[in-house]
Structures are given as C-alpha cells and as structure tokens.
Amino acid sequence: MVAAVIDAKVKVAVTAAGNPALYTSRFKDAGIKVIHLVAAVRHAQSAEKRGVDAVIAEGYEAGGHNGLDELTTLTLVPQVVDAVAIPVVAAGGIADVRGIVAALALGADGVQIGTRFIATRECAAHQNFKEAIVKASDTDTVITGRKLGPTRILKNEIATKILEMEASGASIEELVAFIGSSRSRTGQFEGDLANGQAYCGSIAGMIKEIKSVSEIFQSITDNYDSVLARLK
Amino acid sequence: MVAAVIDAKVKVAVTAAGNPALYTSRFKDAGIKVIHLVAAVRHAQSAEKRGVDAVIAEGYEAGGHNGLDELTTLTLVPQVVDAVAIPVVAAGGIADVRGIVAALALGADGVQIGTRFIATRECAAHQNFKEAIVKASDTDTVITGRKLGPTRILKNEIATKILEMEASGASIEELVAFIGSSRSRTGQFEGDLANGQAYCGSIAGMIKEIKSVSEIFQSITDNYDSVLARLK
Predict the structure, then answer these.
(1) Which whole-number Å values give the CA distances from A98 to A185, B102, B146, in the listed order?
(2) Phi and psi torsions of B11, nearest 5°
(3) Domain of residue A69, CATH code
(4) Which residues of chain B have pLDDT under 70?
(5) Strands B110-112 and B88-91, how do they pair?
(6) Which chain B residue is nearest to residue A81, measuring alpha carbons?
(7) In angstroms, rounded to a whole number, what is the distance separating the alpha carbons of residues B67 and B46?
(8) Could you give the 3-state DSSP secondary structure of residue B102?
(9) Tens of pLDDT, residues B145-162
C-alpha cells in the first residue's frame, strides 16, 4: 500500500495507530507530506522526532479506533500544541462552527471532522448508517473493545453483545471471533445495523439532518463571525 | 444540610449527582439560586423543568465523580446549550484561558474550574496533592469505579489496585470494602497518596506550578485578547 501511494504521487499521507518510524521516511523521501494521528503528548513528540509534517490530536469523543489513554479533545489539543513545534490538527467531537472555533482557541491549526461528513449526501456510507447518525442522541455511542483496542461505535445489538461479553470476562480470542473482520463493512456500507458495527463520534447527537458537503462548509463560513462576536 | 444552608442565607446552592426534584423548590422558596450539575442532555432538560436557575455541564475529563454516559465537555456543552434556555456553565478539562475561550465558543455562559484551583497556595488541599498535580503528565489520571460510580483520580497504587480488582471481577461489595469512605480525605487532605485517593481532572498535565488564585485570574484576563486575536 505504501508503494502504491508513492507510485500514485499522492500529496499527503495520513498515518495512524502505529509507529511513525515505520513509514515516515519512505513517504518523505518521495516528497509526500506526512500527518500522523496521535492520542497523547508522548505520541506527538515521537512523531515530530520522526519528521512528520503535522499531527492530528484526536480525543476520546472521536468515532472508531481510539487511544488507550482516553484523553479528550479539550485536554489533549492544548497539551500537544504546547509540546510540539509542528502544526496540530484537532479531531474528535467537532461537528459545527462552534467546535471549530473551540479547537482553534485551544491552539489547533486546523480541524479534522469525521462523523458530520458521514451524514452527507456525497458520502459512500449506507443510507441506514447516515439516518442512524441523524437519529442518535447525545448518549448513543459507546466505547467497545477496551481490551482489544477501544473503538467508539453506535449503540446497537452488537455493541450491547460486545459489552456483555467484556463484562462477563470473555477472552480476547472470544471477542475477536465474535466481532470478526467484516462487521464494520456490514454496518457502515451494507447498512445492516442489527449485525454490523458503525464507527461513530459522540457528537452524532448534534447532527440533525443529512446535508450536502457544500451546505456544511457554507454553514461554517456563514457562522464563524457570529461565534467570534459572542467572545468579545 | 439543606436546612443549614437556608438558615445561613447562602445565596447560591450547587447540587449534583442526584435528582433536582429533591431540593430545588426548598432552596428556591428560600430565595436561593440553584445550579444543578449535569452530564447529559436529558439531565439538563429535567433540571430546567424542576426550576433550577442554571446548569453546569460537566464532561468526562473532569476530576472526581463522573457521569455514566462519558460525554466529553466538547460534545456535551453545545448539545446542552441547544437543549435548554437557562444559562450553561462548562466544566471539565478547563485550566487556562484557552479552555475558557473554547467553552464560550461552544455556547457556555461561564466555566467551572476545579483542578487548576487545587494547585493554588490558598487551597486547603494537602501540599503533596498540589505537588502531585504539578508533576502529573497528560495521562496521569484514570477513571475507577465504572461499576460503582465512575470517579477520575490521579494514578497511584490505590488506583492500580482498584483497576486490578475491577478487571478480575471483584463484586461491588468487595470494591466498597476496599475503597472505604475515607480514602479521598487520606489522599487529598492528609497527603498520603500511597494509601489515599486524589480526585483530579485530566487537564492536570497542563498545570506546571502552584500559583496564587490572583495569578490565575490575572493570567486569564491578560491573555484573553491574544486568544481572540488568533481566531480572526
């Protein structure tokens, strides 16, 4: 995959969930910018030392795979900003202009927005997944897999079953056998939310309708100044 | 205690960790303002219905007792702001002016700052506790008691022991017997951090020195405009 990315002259590679020493220099040697995702200050410092161009500091509220240290975006971002000299992108829990201004106030140079863009007309996710995000309340996501690798997903029967298995002391092997490798495809792309998982940020409760990408950007630029105005 | 508060003509009562129906009308009838602490949108709506004057929306990063739904300050505050008409105070993960501006950008009308004010010369906490906050890194707090009532504390031997008991399936009775009722006094006020617990927010990693309360306020007012300047 790394070779294919280099071959295709991709301009920016985002790496995550692993050691930045593995691929950074290969990408950099090929003239590709590297942004590494981090969930704690020590990861950010390590990534900077390995020569990445920027880090994404992703908090506990983010959907999908999550750091072991459970630092939230509000606590993680300013500490990463203070610890590294490279640009910091804030991620996790951001779905509208208020979250963007908050992230910039914390010192972030940019933001990464996930769940809000799943519930767009353009996204390849299944319609059922998009509608489940719109229906979700503030408390409708949960962290599963604390033993395997924490993953924030929409609450559904599968999430409940995984949590029950964890509470009753299921082994890692039993959990892996139950979850398998295709449940996120089943949920997110095939739309079977009874048998599949759907990675989802805890900000889903704030997302009330499926929009187009351009509507989301328009709303951000239209409302930025009014958020700033209330800060004066 | 409620009678004593009314008798002493306290002006504002902050209630938490329970049903706002219990005491709100007694306080209100005595002319006391009531602020109720909430950790999810439904709690905020319920508190508003019971007539409280404001809510504190406290996220997962906060020290001490914590909500069951694990909503972070970044995700909780704007959703509470959208759900109620009364003022909203943001709490959890705020220790400097950047966090204050972020909370206000999310729509909060004010902030509650805890851990930062423990590490002040004026605070009644034991010097050992204050120094432990200053020494803490970004990853030095942890949620214990997920079964009993989640509580964020500084990582120490007691925290490790509680987590081990939880992981090995200890009963609630066993956990209560081990934790007892005085470990937070032992840690926080007697300064015995080997045998006591210390409630602590996950923003402790950003707190680098013990200050006076006035220095903290001065730093906030001195730096507010420079945070706003970078948002333009």
Answers:
(1) 31, 8, 31
(2) -85, -35
(3) 3.20.20.70
(4) none
(5) parallel
(6) B206
(7) 15
(8) helix
(9) 988 899 999 999 999 999
CB contact under 8 A, A72 and B79: no
Q: Which domain holds residue A202?
A: 125-206
Q: Give B178-195 pLDDT, tens digit per residue.
A: 998 899 999 999 999 999
Give contacts of A104 with chain B, Cβ < 8 Å: 230-231
Residue pair A38/A91 in contact (Cβ under 8 Å)? The answer is no
The pLDDT tens digits for A2-12 are 999 999 999 99
Query: CA A140 to CA A120: how far, in whole Å?
Result: 19
Residue B169 lies in a domain: yes
Question: Nearest chain B Cα to A73, which residue?
Answer: B74
Mark yes or no for CB contact B40/A93 under 8 Å: no
Report the Cα A29 to chain-centroid distance in Å.
Answer: 27
φ, ψ (nearest 5 deg) of residue B62: -65, 150
Q: For strands A33-38 and A12-15, give the pairing.
A: parallel
For residue B232, tell me if it sits in a domain. no
* Alpha-carbon distance B95 to nearest alpha carbon in chain A (angstroms): 9
The letter for the amino acid at B139 is: T
Asked if residue A13 and residue A51 are part of one domain, the reply reads yes
Beta bridge partners of A199: A153
For B90, the closest chain A residue by CA position comes to: A74
Query: With an 8 Å Cβ cutoff, are A106 and B102 in contact?
Result: yes
Report yes or no: A14 and A53 within 8 Å, Cβ to Cβ: no
